[in-house]
Structures are given as structure tokens and as C-alpha cells.
């Protein structure tokens, strides 16, 4: 594993020649784990989805990007555009960290469409002093999708952390309501507890008040919206312990609160925190209001402070498939975007091998079954249902991600996940190195990055259930 110096991590892309970067792209393209239909970087590291919005005609999606290797370094925003969220056009760099306010990275943020066709972007600029002190700047700017030009609005609407908070204030999610602009920001109090802040027209209103006064040491990537007449807060808390029942087993969590919001007191009266994904690799989700008012979600299929096998080829990370959200029986249900069916090329009877495609297992009697994916002579990713719980086991799937912390928190390094449920349906999306499993028509989801040996794409089904399969082009 390469050891990166600070100078290497913060070297600008334009300091490299075209030939140097072409070599990095060729190295990434030669990797056997490059995917067929998931969004992935041309080279370097992809992490949080940013700026996800819909302008009435096109969807706009950006992602955090360090171009020069599989490490968290100097972050840019890279832009994508799509009419259907199935086929995307890569628009290249949208925001370069080329001002004093984002000298050490254009960090995560969001966007809303404007009447003139431009996008209003809100993001965090990461600045370091000579003494390496971090100063977060909350910035807005105008992005023109037609030209790719971006111009900042100065000064920042928040310069440095507010009183009572550490340098960890970031990730503004912007929305417009009653003629005013609001953002919700992830933050850390001076007592090292996580929270969210609300701004109105650039001015700080205060904290978003919840019952979670001591819930991890930092909240990242918050998102706050109305769905089915309820308020939903999505966020990614860091520092939660693993629970005995198997929940919160990932290094960091992403989840949600559903409740009722009092705007005057900024108080969300909510249900218990629930995780969005029961798999391994899912973080920093962001939503947008899409066509016909659908609430859509896309996340990073990855985890901070983690090394992945593709690092050897100079790239890391991909985004999830789009998910359609609804509230049913007091929980957030996530279904795959129906338009993904456009990727189906042919239906395969009695599938035995699949590198990229979709599986549908119907099991109306909820009887036990076993399904091995990415199977080879000495490897498999195993899904088993014993009548009471679904187990996803990637411990023998091939090469495994590796947590980079010197001290891994208790219960955070297992490669087995167990979900108590009565399983009647699985809709599974496989790509060369990823797996997204939608359970019981979106009641739960399990996501994972999988890195099998070469040509290990076998499928072995035993027990109950009818298995259908479509290959994706």
C-alpha cells in the first residue's frame, strides 16, 4: 500500500501533465473490478455524492473526487448529467479548489436548480493555515450546466465555525422554502458530540433540536426534507458503538429520523434512529426531489478510513443505484428506480454465471434458501435465509476491504451481516465489484463491495424460491 505524503495528497491536478494523468486512467481502466453500470471515477478516489438535483428536464449529480490516487486528498467536484438516472454524461470538473476559501479541498455540498437554468450550489471550502489549522468556509456559487463554468458568491455565508463548535462544520444541504434559502449542516460541538445546524438566508438560526443529544462525535452529510407529510432527517453519525443485535456494525453509520417539525423552535419530534442500509459499504447519502415529486436517494458505496483492493490500481469508490423513497408503516422504504429496467438486455434461464445484471428471487412462503454469488472454485459471497433471518457473508468473497484505523472499535470489523426478517422477495443488482440487495420490495437494503478472483461470477441457488435473471449490457 502506497504511503502518501502531505505534499502528494494536496498536489493539484493541473500540476500533472496530460500524459501523467492518462497513465493513471489507463491503470484504472485495466483493473478487473471496473464496473459496468455503476458510477465510478476515471481514476483516483470518489466519495460523497454532491449537488443531486433536478431542473425539470435533467438530473444533475456531482461527486467528491481526488483525481490522483486512491486516497483522500485535495477534493474537486466532478459533474454528471442524466435525463433518466440510468445513462449519465460525464461533464468533467465542476468545482476546482482554487480559491483561498477552499485551498485544501472543495468539500461536500448540494445544489438547487434556478429559473435561468443554472444551479445554486452550497458547499464547504476546506482551508488550512500554515500551522495546519482547519478553517471551514460555507460557500455558495453559480454553476452553468451548459458551459461548465462555476463562479463563487463571496464572501462565504459562514466563515469558520460558530461559537460553541469545533472546526468540523460542513456539508450544507440547501433548499428553498417560503421564499427563503435554508441549509442544514453537519457539526461537532466543543464537547465532541455531533449535531446539525440550520441557517436561513445565510444566517445561523441554531441547532436542529432532536432527542439525540449525545449520539456520536460528529454528524456528516445531513439532509432534511418533507416526505408523505412527515419531516425526515438523514445523516451520517460517526462514533456510534456496535449493538448486540448486529446493528451499527459498520465503522460509521448512515440513517434517518422521521417525525414532526416545529419551525419556530427548530425541534424535530421523532422516532428512533434507523439505519438506511444493513450491508457493509454505504455512506453519505443525498436525496433530491425528482420527476413527479419522487424523493430519490444516491449514496457512496464505500466507507471512510477504509482501504479497498482497487487502491492497487489507483482508483476507489462508486455510487449506489438511485433509490425511490417512501414512508410506509412508519419506516423509510427504498425501492430501486424502475427505469433501471432499461439496462436489461436478455433474460437468462437457470443462471449459473453473471458479472453484471439483476436477479429476482420470489419466495412467497418465506421458506429457507441459499444463494451463492460471485462464486468460484474457492470463493463465494453467500446469502442464506434460515426462516428467521437473512445472512450476508462476504468473508470468503475474495479480497476484502481493510479498516485503516490503528484501533478498530469493538464489533466493527466483521464481514457477516444478519437481518431478522421474513424474506419473501429479493431484488439483487450485481456489478463486477458491487452488490445491492433490495429486500421485500424495499423494506430493507444490503449493499456491499465485492472483489472476487478473476472470472469468479458463478451463481448457485438451492432451497426455496423462483430465481429470474437479466444480464445488463
Automatic annotation (TrEMBL):
Function: Enables the bacterium to metabolize sucrose as a sole carbon source.
Family: Belongs to the glycosyl hydrolase 32 family.
Keywords of the record: Carbohydrate metabolism, Cytoplasm, Glycosidase, Hydrolase
Protein's pathway: Glycan biosynthesis; sucrose metabolism
Source domain of life: Bacteria
Catalysed reactions listed for this entry: Hydrolysis of terminal non-reducing beta-D-fructofuranoside residues in beta-D-fructofuranosides
Boundaries of every Glycosyl hydrolase family 32 C-terminal domain copy: 359-459
GO cellular component: cytoplasm
Source species of the chain: Suttonella ornithocola
Any single GO BP term: sucrose metabolic process
Domain Glycosyl hydrolase family 32 N-terminal: 38-336
Major localisation: cytoplasm
Single GO MF annotation: beta-fructofuranosidase activity
Enzyme Commission number, as recorded: 3.2.1.26
Protein name: Sucrose-6-phosphate hydrolase
InterPro entries documented for this protein: ConA-like_dom_sf, GH32_Enzymes, Glyco_hydro_32, Glyco_hydro_32_AS, Glyco_hydro_32_C, Glyco_hydro_32_N, Glyco_hydro_beta-prop_sf, Suc6P_hydrolase
Compartment annotation: Cytoplasm
One Pfam assignment: Glyco_hydro_32C
Amino acid at each position: 500500500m502506497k504511503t502518501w505524503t502531505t505534499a502528494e495528497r494536496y498536489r493539484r491536478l493541473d500540476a500533472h501533465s496530460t500524459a501523467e494523468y492518462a497513465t493513471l486512467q489507463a491503470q484504472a481502466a485495466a483493473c478487473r473490478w471496473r464496473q459496468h453500470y455503476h458510477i465510478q471515477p476515471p481514476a483516483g478516489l470518489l466519495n460523497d455524492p454532491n449537488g443531486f438535483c433536478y431542473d425539470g428536464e435533467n438530473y444533475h449529480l456531482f461527486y467528491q473526487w481526488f483525481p490522483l490516487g486512491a486516497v483522500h486528498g485535495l477534493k474537486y467536484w466532478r459533474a454528471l448529467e442524466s435525463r433518466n438516472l440510468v445513462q449519465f454524461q460525464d461533464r468533467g470538473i465542476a468545482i476546482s479548489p482554487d480559491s483561498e476559501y477552499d485551498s485544501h479541498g472543495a468539500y461536500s455540498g448540494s445544489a438547487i436548480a434556478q429559473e435561468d437554468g443554472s444551479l445554486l450550489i452550497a458547499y464547504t471550502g476546506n482551508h488550512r493555515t500554515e500551522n495546519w489549522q482547519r478553517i471551514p468556509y460555507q460557500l455558495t456559487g453559480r454553476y452553468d450546466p451548459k458551459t461548465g463554468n462555476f463562479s463563487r458568491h463571496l464572501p462565504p455565508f459562514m466563515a469558520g465555525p460558530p461559537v460553541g463548535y469545533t472546526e468540523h462544520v460542513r456539508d450544507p444541504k440547501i433548499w428553498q422554502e417560503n421564499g427563503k434559502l435554508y441549509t442544514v449542516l453537519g457539526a461537532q460541538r466543543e464537547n465532541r458530540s455531533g449535531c446539525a445546524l440550520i441557517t436561513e438566508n445565510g444566517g445561523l438560526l441554531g441547532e436542529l433540536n432532536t432527542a439525540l443529544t449525545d449520539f456520536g462525535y460528529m454528524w456528516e452529510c445531513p439532509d432534511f426534507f418533507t416526505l408523505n407529510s412527515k419531516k425526515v432527517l438523514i445523516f451520517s453519525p460517526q462514533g456510534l458503538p456496535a449493538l448486540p443485535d448486529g446493528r451499527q456494525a459498520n465503522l460509521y453509520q448512515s440513517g434517518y429520523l422521521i417525525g414532526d417539525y416545529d419551525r419556530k423552535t427548530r425541534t424535530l419530534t421523532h422516532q428512533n434512529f434507523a439505519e438506511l442500509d444493513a450491508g457493509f459499504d454505504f455512506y453519505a447519502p443525498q436525496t433530491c426531489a425528482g420527476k413527479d415529486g419522487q424523493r430519490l436517494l444516491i449514496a457512496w458505496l464505500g466507507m471512510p478510513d477504509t482501504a479497498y483492493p482497487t487502491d492497487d490500481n489507483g482508483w476507489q469508490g462508486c455510487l449506489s443505484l438511485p433509490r425511490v423513497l417512501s414512508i410506509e408503516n412508519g419506516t423509510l422504504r427504498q425501492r430501486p428506480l424502475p427505469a433501471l429496467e432499461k439496462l436489461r438486455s436478455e433474460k437468462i434461464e437457470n443462471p449459473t454465471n453473471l458479472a453484471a445484471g439483476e436477479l429476482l428471487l420470489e419466495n412467497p412462503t418465506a421458506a429457507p434458501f441459499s444463494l451463492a454469488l460471485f462464486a468460484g472454485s474457492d470463493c463465494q459471497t453467500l446469502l442464506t435465509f434460515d426462516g428467521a433471518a437473512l445472512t450476508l457473508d462476504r468473508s470468503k468473497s475474495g479480497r476484502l476491504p481493510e479498516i485503516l484505523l490503528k484501533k478498530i472499535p469493538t464489533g466493527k470489523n466483521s464481514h457477516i451481516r444478519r437481518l431478522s426478517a421474513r424474506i419473501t422477495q429479493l431484488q439483487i443488482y450485481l456489478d463486477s465489484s458491487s452488490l445491492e440487495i433490495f429486500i421485500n420490495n424495499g423494506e430493507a437494503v444490503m449493499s456491499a463491495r465485492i472483489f472476487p478472483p478473476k472470472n469468479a461470477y458463478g451463481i448457485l441457488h438451492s432451497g426455496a424460491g423462483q430465481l429470474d435473471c437479466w444480464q445488463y449490457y
